Amino acid sequence: MGLCKAHKPSDSYLSLTAEGEELRGQWDIALRDLEHAIGLDANGDGAITWGELRRKETEVSAYALARLKLGDCSLKPGALMVDEHTDGAYAVLPFVAHCGDALPRRIELEYSLFADLDPTHRGLLRASFGERTVTGVLGPDQPRLALDPDGRSRWEQFVDYGREGIWHIWIGFDHVLFLLSLLLPAVLLAQRFAPAFWDVFKVVTAFTVAHSITLALAALSVVTLPSRLVESAIAASVVLAALNNLWPVVQRARWLVAFTFGLIHGFGFASVLADLGLPQESLVVALLGFNLGVEAGQLVIVALFLPLAYAVRDTWFYRRVVLVGGSVAITLIAALWLVERAFDVKLY
After folding, report:
1. Which of 47, 137, 308, 333 shows the greatest Cβ crowding within 10 Å of its Cβ?
2. In whole angstroms, what is the distance from residue 204 CA to residue 186 CA?
3. For strand 68-70 and strand 107-111, is the pairing parallel, antiparallel, or unpaired?
4. CB–CB of 245/185 below 8 Å?
5. Sign of the CA dihedral 34, 35, 36, 38?
6. pTM of structure
7. Is the pLDDT of residue 3 over 70?
8. H helices then E strands: how many in the chain?
9. What are the sequence ranges of the domains in the chain?
10. Containing H/E element for 85?
11. Which DSSP category does 320 fall into?
């Protein structure tokens, strides 16, 4: 079991199911995150074997369950297993929550996994109460959630995933660098602000439409692609977009470049929702909220970049340092990502 090199942020997947007087749970936690927290790779060869994980089974269960509280219920771990997600191997921790003679109607969940190690970590929750499903996103900035069989409103779930979409684009550095690579020359292709604005508008709209299409297809399991292929292609798209600023091949039709590679980026965005395995009615809400959150995050980036870039576009600093120097830096960074992801090696 190798450690994943994908860009995907740290996530865990927590599923709860009400069965009579008990809550049965399954918690999928990335091996790479557990390695960072408690150390699993005993021989330091960069690969975590089943034997190494089994030797740490008691420690893994104790570490995880100490960071999850379900009201006054006591949590009993089951036998540790392993599963493959789109971004690598995960420890699968089954457990049972015993809550006394009767399952409370409302349970206060507290989640603090990796809170002291990674402020970007998120726990994606799916709780089933008969035919009702509750979803939510937990993390250091939102560690508590009330579980109620009546469910959370669609609006609450929509807001959760909208917030997650904004956060995902802001910490998805490969997506951000791809977008910036397309925006850098935009202010040089027009003499006035309005044409520059509309050029940026076409680029961002094309990128949005494209990744919305594949985000929906992948999250709904209509089309699936291997994570390694997707992540490698995303890195390659950043390299090509930055190189186009240094040796222009496509200038006026950059929106077409944004659309073409945006299709690949959509598969990257979809990995979080696809791995969660939400039921159809919840997935639509999560998909819409997450996608609109991504768009809101993009608009903030554009709103910060465009006026400032336009104001200094005629300076030597912008043309040489920002455009040329920035494109060179982006090319080198993305090339390292490409090699890491394509050949499953760690360069830095």
Report:
1. 137
2. 11
3. antiparallel
4. yes
5. positive
6. 0.76
7. no
8. 11, 10
9. 11-152, 161-343
10. strand 81-85
11. I
Instruction: Answer whether CATH 1.20.1250 is correct for domain 161-343.
Output: yes
The single-letter code of the amino acid at 76 is K
Strand partners, 60: none
Question: Which uninterrupted H or E stretch holds 198?
Answer: helix 193-219
Q: What is the mean pLDDT of residues 66-71?
A: 96
Q: pLDDT confidence of 24, banded at 50, 70, 90?
A: very high
How confident is the model at residue 348, as a pLDDT? 60
Give the side-chain half-sphere CA count within 13 A for 227.
18
The dihedral built from the CA positions of residue 161, 162, 167 and 168, taken in this order, carries a sign that is positive
DSSP type of residue 223 = S
Q: Is the pLDDT of residue 86 over 80?
A: no
Cα 144 from Cα 126, distance rounded (Å): 14
- Distance separating alpha carbons of residues 306 and 318, to the nearest angstrom: 13
Answer yes or no: are the C-beta atoms of 273 and 219 closer than 8 Å: yes
CA angle 138, 4, 11 (to 5 degrees): 5
Q: Give residue 246's identity as a one-letter amino acid code.
A: L
Tell me what pLDDT residue 338 has: 94
Give per-residue pLDDT as tens, 195-234: 888 888 888 889 989 999 998 888 777 888 888 899 899 9
The CA distance from 139 to 133, in Å, is: 20
- Report d(CA 130, CA 178) in Å as an integer: 43
| Confidence at residue 291, expressed as pLDDT on a 0 to 100 scale | 86
Res. 5 pLDDT band, cuts 50 70 90: very low
CB contact at 8 A, 48 and 41: yes
What the block records as the tokens of 90 is 């995960």
Nearest-angstrom CA–CA distance, 78 and 139: 24
pLDDT (mean) for 117-124: 91
Of 165, 335, 306, which Cα lies nearest the Cα of 237? 335
Query: How far is the C-alpha of 271 from the C-alpha of 168, rounded, in Å?
Result: 11
What pLDDT score was predicted for residue 21?
79
Q: What percent of the chain has pLDDT over 90?
A: 52
Q: Which two tokens stand for residue 243?
A: 């190189």
Six token digits for residue 318: 């912008």
